[in-house]
Amino acid sequence: MSEPVLEVKGLHQYFEKGTANENHALKGIDLTLDPGEFVAIIGGNGAGKSTLLNSVAGSLPVDYGQIKIDGHDVTYQSVAKRAKLISRVFQDPKQGTATLLTVEENLSLALKRGARRNFWSNGVKRNERDLFRAKLASLDLGLEGRLSAEIGLLSGGQRQAVTLLMATIKQPSLLLLDEHTAALDPKTSATVMEITDKIVHEQNLTTLMITHNMADALKYGNRLIMLDHGQIAVDIKGDQKKNLTVSDLLELFKQQSGAALTDDAILLS
Ligand SMILES: Nc1ncnc2c1ncn2[C@@H]1O[C@H](COP(=O)(O)OP(=O)(O)O)[C@@H](O)[C@H]1O
Ligand SMILES: [Mg+2]
C-alpha cells in the first residue's frame, strides 16, 4: 500500500475568531488523497473551497487540525518550504507567469525552481529548449513556434496553458487548481480543461481542483467532493463518480445534509 499524498485531519479554520463576526469557515475537514487521485471540489459561494486550498498550500495558518503531505507534517510549515511539494495554478492567468519574460524564460524559471546555483547565468540551454518545444507542441496551441515571444503577448488561455506546464514541469507531489479556468471564455476554458486532464493523466498527478463548473466536476477527475458550510457534504469516487448526473448529485446532497440544495450558483453553472 502506498502512502497517501495528502492527509488533512480535523481541520478547523476561523476568520475573526473571538469577535462578533466570527466565521467558522472549515468545520472539521478530514480528507485523504491517494497517489494519482484527481479530485474536483465544488460548493456554493463561501462553502470553504478556497480556505481549504489555502490551508493546504500554507497561505492560511491552520487554527486546528493537521496537514500531511507525502507523510511529512506541514501543518506549521511556511508556503516557501512546502512549495517544493506543491504547485498551484490560480484563476488569473497573469498570476502564474512573468509578463515581461519570454515563454521559454518562464519555462526555464519553472524548471530551475528550487535550484540555487546558476539561476540565470546560462540562459536557456539547448536541451531545455528542446524539452520546452516538445511540451508546448503537446498543448496543440501552436505555441512551439513562440518560444521567444513575451508571455504578455499570449491570450489568456495560451498563458494559462503555459502556466500549467510550468506548474507540472518538475512533477509536484500535489497539484492545486484554484478555479483555473474561471476567467476564460467557455471555449477556451474547455480547451484548458482538456489540457489539464491530459497532463494530470500523463504524469499521474495527485490533483485537487476547485471548479465552479458542475459539468467539469462531473466530467473530469476520479473523485468529486462537495463542500457545504465548511463541511464535506458529498465525497464520491470510482464507478459511482463515472456515472454521476447532476440529479444524482443533488439527491446525494439531500441525503447527506438533510436539506435540498438551493444554491443557484452551483446549480446553474
Ligand atoms: N480573509 C477572510 N476574512 C474573513 N472571512 C473570510 C476570509 N476568507 C474567506 N472568508 C469567509 O470564509 C468562508 C469561506 O470562504 P471561501 O473559502 O473563500 O469560500 P469559497 O471559496 O467556497 O467561495 C466565507 O464565509 C467567507 O466569507
Ligand atoms: Mg473561492
- DSSP strand content: 15-25%
Give the beta-strand count. 10
Q: Would you tell me the structural class of the helices and strands?
A: alpha/beta
- Note the overall shape: globular
Strand order in space, largest sheet: 6-7-8-3-9-10
Low-pLDDT parts are none
| Largest sheet entry | 6 strands, mixed
Tally of alpha and pi helices:
10
Q: Average pLDDT across residues?
A: 92
Approximate helicity band: 25-40%
**Computed CA radius of gyration, to the nearest angstrom:** 19 Å
> What is the ordering of alpha helices and beta strands?
EEEHEEHEHHHEHEHEEHHH
Distance between the termini: 38 Å
> Which ions, cofactors or small ligands are bound in this entry?
adenosine-5'-diphosphate, magnesium ion
Secondary structure layout plus pairing:
Blueprint: E1 6-15, E2 23-33, E3 38-42, H1 49-57, E4 64-69, E5 72-73, H2 79-82, E6 86-89, H3 103-112, H4 126-139, H5 156-168, E7 174-178, H6 186-202, E8 206-210, H7 214-219, E9 223-228, E10 231-237, H8 238-242, H9 246-257, H10 264-267
Parallel strand pairs: 3-8, 3-9, 6-7, 7-8
Antiparallel strand pairs: 1-2, 1-4, 4-5, 9-10
Helix pairs in contact: 3-5, 5-6
Bound molecules: adenosine-5'-diphosphate and magnesium ion.
